[in-house]
Amino acid sequence: MKKFLPYAALTVAVGAAFFFIRPGSPAARRDPSNRFVQTRGSRFLIAGQPFRFVGANVSVMYRDDDRQRMPETLRQAAQAGIRVVRIWASGEGGPNDVGPVADQADWPRTHPFRWSPGNWNEDAFIHLDNVIAQAAQNNLQVQLCLANWWRDTGGVTQYLRWAGIADAADAQYKFGINPERAMAFYTNEKTRQLYREHLEKIVTRRNSVTGILYRDDPTIMGWELMNEAQAVTGRWTERRAWIAEMSAYLKSLDPNHAITPGDWGYRTAAERREWLADHRLQNIDYCDVHNYPKDDSDSFVDSPAALREFVENRAAAAFSLNKPLVFGEFGIGTQGYRGVSQTEWYRAFFESNVRAGSAGAMFWIFTPDPGRGYGITYSTSRDAAVLDEVKRAAQMFGALSSADPPERLTDPSRHLVPRQFSWSRSPGDPATMPQIIVRDDRSLLYQFKPQMAAAEQFEKIGSGPGYIWGFGVGHLDYLVPERADRRRVSEMIVRAHIQPVLPIDAKPEQIKTRVTLFVNGTDCGSRLIPVEPGNAPLIQEWRIDKLSVRLRAMRGLPITIRFAVSAEADWPYGVNISNWPEGYESHDAKPVEVEVRR
């Protein structure tokens, strides 16, 4: 297996270059207005100096043992080179309310921030006061996460239950959430009111330990509106309106701190576009991405090289917005993954982020508990090698804190599609040869079965008896073979039985696909194709009289017919070419036809 380059290549003279300007330092005291973490382009600044960091989610908020060991955990984090800790500042409902689906260690819930609407838990706020105070003592910045999509801490489904919508929490669905019903969180007047109350409660709180208002505390790096906020395909505008509303309200309460939405990331070109739109909002200051290679198979991160591609793609997306990128979560278990050890995965994660120009890279989760899933523990020697990687990465981020983003990642057009798969057949392969019919008028008809494609490239690909498909952005090619004779050609007609490829969470009536026909590279126009109703197939037809296309057909040269979905398409939902539905009288036609008329 190909290994990453050693850290030595990136860490020459690190000791001399390793520095951070922290709140309370002489530089910060000279300009108090800059003590907060600020953004400038793709970088964070503290006291006017670049700030890049290794960070960690820390286990200090909910379990009794974690709460008791909180000072020790934060001290150990600082000693490991961690500079930012991500902490939960949310939790809703009690032991008779919405509970977790998988991890039962925090159940029944005993430390929420709010037992019920109007019934706050002061003990949880006091504990958070202490966490922030301890973080300041250990020279740590704190990113506070203000809500949770998932049920672990109550989250969206508990907010909805308080608003009278009880069926969003449903064990029949993956992760115990009915996503269609949970989307109501973004639009329901009551849930939005309850969430705004939580924002005001947190942001305007005066820390009982330090006496500093949260909105005035430079120890707080920034606010994350929600952990892994999800949206059903086709309904992204509902989430975006919520992000716009809450980020504007939060800025009105606290103009000092940076805000990130907590979208978690994207897997497809369509999701990438929505992620960009969310992070382009006026009151959003930095971008956030999560990745768990083993669990998130649809991201196709199955090797350190693939992880590097994943990181670079997300960095390019953030740079296209001229905003910093933070990898807010990353995790691999002690057993490693795909024959690569946990330590090697962590090395790849940190090195990829350093090379890509990310502003910060945070892992899940720093904990005293060696039994916690994806935990990196300081209480035993088990994770010593991983913690060595954390320390090295902290030095690299510090040494390269002022480095500009790599030039190759500042061209977003090179990274519009997160990942694609492709295959092709050799010219003349019998598997690509169509049936050729010479008509009485000497026009030619080339008929292709779906699997006679000559090449394919899409975000996902697949085929079976009587069909071939590609999901998202890409293209599918068929090849009209070379002809010996020359002839006059007045027109070429291309027909195809095409359908969109639906995302798993989408309803058919919500999805279309924009397919453009290219004939030997010539754009012959697009069709917006919906899901066809019942057994009435929708046949797309292009009539082409462009001279460049006709000349090639006149000369009998091979012709490439390409059905393409571009990254800029308004509906980028792939191509599915299949045989006719059962009961349809096709009159011996094939799903793809190319007619060359005299």
Task: Write a short abstract of this structure.
This protein is an alpha/beta fold. It has helices at residues 14-17, 26-30, 64-68, 70-79, 122-137, 155-162, 179-182, 189-203, 236-253, 269-279, 304-320, 342-356, 384-399, 547-554, and strands at 38-40, 43-46, 49-51, 53-58, 84-88, 114-116, 119-120, 141-145, 220-224, 258-260, 287-291, 325-330, 360-367, 376-377, 421-424, 435-438, 444-448, 455-464, 467-480, 491-499, 512-519, 522-530, 539-544, 559-565, 575-578, 592-597. A hairpin with a 2-residue loop joins strand 2 and strand 3 (49-51).
- What helical percentage do the residues reach? 25-40%
> CA-to-CA gap between the ends?
57 Å
The average pLDDT value, as a whole number, equals 92
Residue ranges: pLDDT <50 for 5 or more in a row?
1-32
Secondary-structure content class: alpha/beta
Supply Rg: 28 Å
Strand content: 15-25%
Shape: elongated
Number of strands: 26
Individual helix count: 14
- What can be said about the biggest beta sheet? 12 strands, antiparallel
Overall description:
The chain has 598 residues and is of the alpha/beta class. Helices cover 25% and strands 24% of the residues. The chain is built from 14 helices and 26 strands. Strands 15, 16, 17, 18, 19, 20, 21, 22, 23, 24, 25 and 26 form a twelve-stranded antiparallel β-sheet that branches. Strands 4, 5, 8, 9, 10, 11, 12, 13 and 14 form a nine-stranded parallel β-sheet that branches. Strands 1-2-3 form a three-stranded antiparallel β-sheet, with no helix packed on it. α11 links the parallel β11 and β12. α12 packs parallel to α13. The radius of gyration is 28 Å and the shape is elongated. The termini are far apart.
